[in-house]
Design brief:
Blueprint: E1 2-6, H1 15-28, E2 32-41, H2 43-54, E3 62-66, E4 72-80, H3 81-90, H4 95-110, H5 118-135
Parallel strand pairs: 1-2, 2-4
Antiparallel strand pairs: 3-4
Amino acid sequence: MINFNYETDFNLENEEAFTDWLSAVIVSEKKNEGEINYIFCDDEYLHKINVEYLNHDTLTDIISFDYTVGNELNGDIFVSIERVEDNAKDFNVSFDEELKRVLAHGILHYCGYKDKTDKDAELMRSKEDEKIIMFHVKR
C-alpha cells in the first residue's frame, strides 16, 4: 500500500496515477509492495529530520527510512517540495519530472540501489530515467 501524506501546502494531483506507477516500479524490480509512506514537507521539516536522525546539518530533497523485510518493500520517504522545486530549476527540467525522479529514487533505494560512488550514482540515474518513462506508458 502506497500512502501520500502532507506536512506542507503541496497536494499531489492524481494520486491514483502515481500509486499505480510506483506499484509498477516495484513489480518491475521483482519486489513486493508492503507499506510505503511518502511524506511531502518543506525544507525546515526535512532539515530537522536530517539533523536529528542522520546528524547531517544540510538541506536535502529526500530522506528514506527503509523498513524492508526480505523482498517486501516498506518504509517512509520524506520529500522536500522546496528542494524539488529548486532542483528542477537547477537541472532545467519540469517540477513534475523532478518529482517523479525523487519518488522513484526512494523506491530504488529500497530495491538496493545506492548512489554514493560515481558508478552507483550513474546506475541510479539510469534506473530513475527508466522508471520515469514507465509513468507515461499505459498499463
